[in-house]
Amino acid sequence: MPANLLGRETSPYLLQHKDNPVHWMAWGRDAFERAKRENKPVLLSVGYAACHWCHVMAHESFENPEIAALMNELYVNIKVDREERPDVDQIYQSALAMLGQQGGWPLTMFLTPEAEPFWGGTYFPPASRYGRPGFPDVLRGVAETYRNKPENVTRNVSALKDALGKLAENRAAGEVDLAMLDQIADRLVREVDPFHGGIGHAPKFPQVPIFTLLWRAWLRTGKEPYREAVTNTLAHMSQGGIYDHLGGGFARYSVDEMWLVPHFEKMLYDNAQLLDLMTLVWQAEREPLFEARIRETVGWVLREMIAEGGGFAATQDADSEGEEGLFYIWNEEEIDRLLGPGAEVFKRAYGVTPQGNWEGATILNRLHRIEALDAETEATLAEQRAILWREREKRIKPGWDDKVLADWNGLMIAALAQAGMVFDEPEWIAAAQRAFTFVRDRMTEDGRLLHSWRAGQLKHRATLDDYAHMARAALALHEATGDAGALEQARAWVRVLDAHFWDATAGGYFYTADDADDLIVRTKSAGDAATPSGNGTMLAVLATLHHRTGEDTYRERADALAAAFSGELSRNFFPLPTYLNAAELLQKALQIVIVGDPQAPDTAALRRAVLDRPLPDRILTVLPPGTDLPAEHPAHGKGMQGGAATAYVCTGMTCSPPVTAPDALAAALTRR
Fold this sequence. Notes:
With 672 residues, the chain is α+β, with helices and mostly antiparallel strands.
């Protein structure tokens, strides 16, 4: 007897739907076999726990007995958490785009019993509005077409199948010409809003890889427009409503061009990427605002995003008590009551007014004055924020999705390791180590990573992104701690990718492994999405491994990977900044080897001279006395001078003379 089967799942998003009157099934062979037996099309609904419009469609349609009955009568209904199954989501988001529609969540796709898409959309209201057809009309119309006009379905399936098959095609064109990077930066900077920062107009997303590319362009060329684009964007985001001024952390995106009104969900991956970029920018700018946002955001991660076992949780919801943003907004009366006579100072600073700035309430922000106030006022505001934060903690909190996802954990582990080194915060590095240990030890079976863990259950084969981001995290921890085991783990994960994901014919890594058997196509791309691309990240991983070990096999694979997608630059370079940044690392890596006791003050002083500088292509190694680098490494055989910690700066196979004074090392790095 058909029933809702989501109670068997562990995903918080799927469990949110376990009591729907819809007969939901999870993605898998059972659902499609049932569709074949009953000769019904499949309705595929994809979302995630922190998605506001997913909640809206659930309340309006999936909890509606009449609409649910229609769904059950006409379809086999499959519910997917896009964070658990990014491979499924990627394929059907691509199919929707091929139908000429804008993607997003909730994704609503209609499939044959063979999982082939033939029509779809995103959010549908329960009755016609917003220029969208009502969901019941869509359900009846699609089912009627499936029954009575099979030739139309077949035509759509055939066209989409051909187009989806091309998702694995890449355009190769040899080595990336680094001279193109300045041309691309010049083109990208024109897309930046000169007033509010960010790319284009509303809605605005952080787009961190693009701004990382622009920051690298400023470091490389000294051209002020690149610097201004990045610092202006980060300043407006840091002072906007997209930032949680009481608890720390950035929301996923802003619905307006000013960064004032966010969609209030907080995603682990956004905050990891922003920590990385702000740390790099702070190394050059020493801007107190950026340091404050880094420290506050790390504070939020360590306070609110640690899941059972030490891994990092995936998201915090936008909604609480059924309302978007309710947890985060304030009215003037609350502020006056809590802050008393000092409330006027706070209200002026954070834009609190009787009418509010969003649906009659206020989203705290400091956009009307980006610059800091005097020290005394800022100290007062900090005390007032603490009062409001303690009061806010009494509210009903948004939902917390405590899935541990390997790829998103890799992003945060690397960000914490890097920020921990730069700001000399050992606890940040320790938190990164704990999460790394959890993923390595608890999310691995038979030497293969799995993608998701929750409630003691591992689920779903790992994708390219899982391996790529965790390998990058391993290399970041190796640099931060000197742990040789982390380096070896990165090498092991690369071996898995080479065995199961590499395209031996056209080059590049597929998104899914060669033994993934429940998908209709294997995709392959170097384009960034909400997270940096797996192929772009792997180019950086391979480059780093080559430079750390001196082994030519990593260089050869990196060259092949770079060449596999270089032809895409003439077609569309906008989604390729992670790949481009990694191509620069491959060709321009700056290796700094410090030979000395890792615990000694003179070693620490040399290390600090390195970490105080913005060197995005830096590969830093601290080598204890009595150990050596591989024979193929340019600093092989280099040692301490006069019993003092000694640094060597290497490019290619050439190293500088030995440097023992921190000032001299800093000067040598500045000249580069």
